[in-house]
Amino acid sequence: MGVSLYRTVKMGDMQALYFLEETERHMSLTLLPEGMEPVPWENKKQAADSLVQAYVRGDDLPGAYSGGKTMRSGGTVWGMRFCQQKCETDAAGNIVVETMLQSPHGHFCHYLKYLAHTGAAESWTEFFNTGKKAVTLEMLSSFSISGITPLAAGAAPGQLRIHRLRSDWSMEGRLVTERLERLNLEPSWAGHGVRSERFGQVGSMPVNKWFPWLLVEDVKNHLFWGAQLGHNASWQMEVYREDDGAAISGGLADYEFGHWAKTVRPDESFRTPAATLTVCKCDTIDEASDRLVSAMRVPDIASEQELPILFNEYCTTWGCPSHENIANILSAIQDKGISYFVIDAGWYKPEGIPWENALGDWRVSKELFPEGLEKTVAAIKEAGMTPGIWFEPETAGKASEAYRQEEHMLTRNGAVITTAGRRFWDLRDPWVRDYLRERVIEFLKSCGFGYVKIDYNDTVGIGCDKAESLGEGLRQNMEASFEFFQEMQRCIPGLVIENCSSGGHRLEPKMLSATAMSSFSDAHECTAIPIIAANLHRVMQPRQSQIWAVIQQKDSLTRIAYSMSATLLGRCCLSGHVTELTAEQWKTIEDGIAFYKAAAPVIKAGRSYRFGPEIFSYNEPEGWQGMLRVGNQGESLLVIHMFGGELPEYVSLRLPKNTRTEVQSVYDACHSKYQISDGVFQWRPKETFSSIALLLA
After folding, report:
1. Residue 91 contacts by C-beta under 8 Å, 6 or more apart in sequence?
2. Whole-number Å distance between alpha carbons of 80 and 576
3. What is the pLDDT of residue 406?
4. Residue 288: helix, strand or coil by DSSP?
5. Which residues of 298-323 are buried (b: 16+ CB within 10 A; e: fewer)?
6. Spatial distance between the Cα atoms of 68 and 50, rounded to a whole number of angstroms
7. Residue 119 near residue 280 (C-beta atoms within 8 A)
8. Which of 15, 194, 213, 608 is most buried when burial is the number of CB atoms within 10 A of its CB?
9. What's the pLDDT tens digit per position in 316-374?
10. Quick one: 686 exposed, middle or buried, by C-beta within 10 A (0-12, 13-18, 19+)?
């Protein structure tokens, strides 16, 4: 069974290598940095692992103890035969490689699109049913890269490790690093038996356990392979191994993992969500992940260009906003450099009903706003701010009339899906779409809101009825959800949309592409805020990461600066006891706002580097963290947070080569000592839970 290099396609500083097994005509894909050559194929015991992984119902299932572990490399894959390949470059410089595989069921077409002037490419697969019978897919990958690591003969023991990002409520983005051997991802002594680490998330919160993000590192050769999937429902990724060459793949959660099956009728097709891929030679996770993040699409909203600061009243009124308390807040924050004012949850709730139980009807509370919201909107505009408002349009609370519209709700096995007092609209239903247009879009237009925060506070789970499978029902419903976001933007040009899902449960590329900003977390008042905010630099652009700075009356000046400095890691969202603060407290906030505005160009466009020890406890963090953001024009923002534990004599970090070191501005409530000498920054913190921020040029 001979395997030869069929084609090499240069993609910026990367190269895509297509290997063809000549007898069965199986095609595999390997990525390498430009200029690097793989070891000869015969130097590794490896099969040509297909660049498309799929399973069609009724075909032979994979063997070698795969059942329940993986659906890769079964009868459908081994029935594929390479047919043809096209490589074209468009006017923008994007290179698209289309690889067609013929099978008894139809054509599987894999697409790899280099995104010009970036360090990344997009990958997706489309199945075309060219036969005369319906075909039911139970798995179809968006990407599959094999032959890892192509620079080492044999299995490269101890040389490969994977990096993933865990996520739970208020603990988004914790880095987990494991060697392949610790996951049993080592070929057996006899070369028999499949090894697979399949992970992902099931439900309508795509970042409820893991981020759809993966890096594989060759520690000997300083190589990273990266993948990030854009999908707002159930998804999976796999690290797979049966021989010397490891493979990574991902896409929709398959039938075993997410109960997904899709029937494609004759002359129809089905396309997977896209994944972003990269490969690079570098020294750090931050450099590798920056290639994925830099390729992400961000909406171009005119009002967002200078990263304006916002105020959200949730941590001031705690779900009970009114015209009266908003007027008091406006008097305290007017002329403080704040551009958006967001009315959060509760503006619609009847008297005596908690805000979370009143979702769905979306009628303005007469008790809280006796003259309607128009008067409050006018007051916000008079204070020089863009008015914003909160919705959770995809659900209904148990005290609402909407909750009883069971014929329009999602069901599973015939029963309405209900979670702790919430139900979920079936967004595929035309009646529901019309209802939401009236209650949300027309409401925003008629009241004159320029900003909307869209929240989503529970998950449907494995899926819903009215499709070929529960997983496909979920995919269709969440596609309709995404389309509603797009419809809001079309109907109200310039509308600033904030993506929130109990904080960061929807921080994936697809939703980020449709929204100007996203809530980074529901971490409102805790000391872990800068830790979480720093984590997210690996999966999203800081200009989209909205970070809470909740200021309380009891806060010391050091604590206020700690909170304000955390927002330098993304977007600044103020809240808290702003009507009860002293002039001295306000001075520290105002200094933070002025520093933020000076730093905004670096936050908007640059590259991020994290320094410091691993932080184990988020509730009682110890140690320190440094974040350096190097702007595209050479200027830099350095933000360091001191946590609990023993206070060190000094914190020291070596700045990346060629980092400018002239200090332009400092934000430090403690007036502590620091120095920069020979590219090394040293800071002598005075207190635990303190911070310092510097602009360098």
Report:
1. none
2. 60
3. 98
4. helix
5. bbebeebeebbbbbbbbbbbebbbbb
6. 20
7. yes
8. 213
9. 999 999 999 999 999 999 999 999 999 999 999 999 999 999 999 999 999 999 999 99
10. middle
Residue 291: pLDDT over 80: yes
Q: What CA dihedral angle connects 125, 128, 131 and 134, to 10 degrees?
A: 80
Which residues face 56 on adjacent strands?
137
- Quick one: average pLDDT of 143-166? 96
Q: Could you tell me which CATH number the domain at 3-36+51-294 has?
A: 2.70.98.60
Q: Quick one: how many helices (H) and strands (E) in the chain? A: 13, 40
Q: Please, which residues have CB within 8 angstroms of residue 548's CB and are 6 or more apart in sequence? A: 312, 315, 520, 521, 523, 524, 525, 529, 563, 567, 573, 575
- The full length of the chain comes to 697
What is the per-residue pLDDT across 419-448, written as a single tens digit (0 to 9) for each? 999 999 999 999 999 999 999 999 999 999
Tokens for 366, please give them.
Answer: 């007469």
What are the domain boundaries of the chain?
3-36+51-294
The pairing of strands 636-642 and 690-696 is antiparallel
Per-residue model confidence as pLDDT tens digits over 530-541? 999 999 999 999
pLDDT of the residue at 633: 85
Chain centre to alpha carbon of residue 535: 11
Nearest Cα neighbor of 321 from 312, 331, 334 is 312
Q: What rounded mean pLDDT belongs to the chain?
A: 97
- Whether the pLDDT of residue 1 is over 70: the answer is no
CA gap 153, 29 in Å, rounded: 18
| Residue 693 C-beta-side C-alpha neighbours within 13 Å | 26
> Rounded mean pLDDT of 287-303?
96
Q: What is the mean pLDDT of residues 486-507?
A: 98
> What phi and psi values does residue 593 have, to the nearest 5 degrees?
-65, -45
Q: 267 and 129 in contact (C-beta within 8 Å)?
A: yes
* Tokens found for residue 99: 């690889």
Query: Terminal CA-to-CA distance of the chain, rounded, Å?
Result: 59
Answer whether the bond into residue 149 is a cis peptide, omega within 30°.
yes
Per the structure block, which two tokens stand in for 528?
């872990």
Q: What is the pLDDT of residues 205-251, one digit of tens each?
A: 999 999 999 999 999 999 999 999 999 999 999 999 999 999 999 99
| Cα–Cα nearest to 551, from 588, 595, 594 | 588
Is residue 147 within a helix (H) or strand (E), and if so which, with residue range?
A: strand 135-148
Which amino acid is it at 67?
G
Contact 105, 266 (CB under 8 A): no
Its sign, for the CA torsion 398, 400, 404, 406, is: negative
**pTM summary value:** 0.97
DSSP letters spanning 355-394: GGGSTTS----TTT-TT-HHHHHHHHHHTT-EEEEEE-TT
